[in-house]
Amino acid sequence: MAGDFNARAVEWGMPVTNARGRHILEMASRLDLEVANWGSTPTYRRPGFGESIPDLTLVSAELIHLVADWRVMSVYTASDHDFISFRLKETGGHGVRVPETQSAGIWPSWTGESSWTSLIAASRPVH
Length: 127
Hints:
This protein is α+β, with helices and mostly antiparallel strands.
């Protein structure tokens, strides 16, 4: 699960944990999720408001070992949030097929492009 949670916690690189961060950590604990974020690179930057890490990637404890190369991308997003990139390792011939557009580094725009739907639909389990 990934998204803009607008929460702060030392577990994902913030200097302090706020109430919302504690709630997210409690939810993650109850659902057996782990934070996949790596490092302390800000995912949110806005002049006059500063920088923070409100964007999280949460993965089940059973699958966290498959997450690799998690990073904040330094590409233009037309947003005050940066893209997050990671890959899933394949194990024993099973894994997730990555669409060619994603592996080639071509990212759809946030502004009305329906490519996100295609990108998600093209991601399917490999058997």
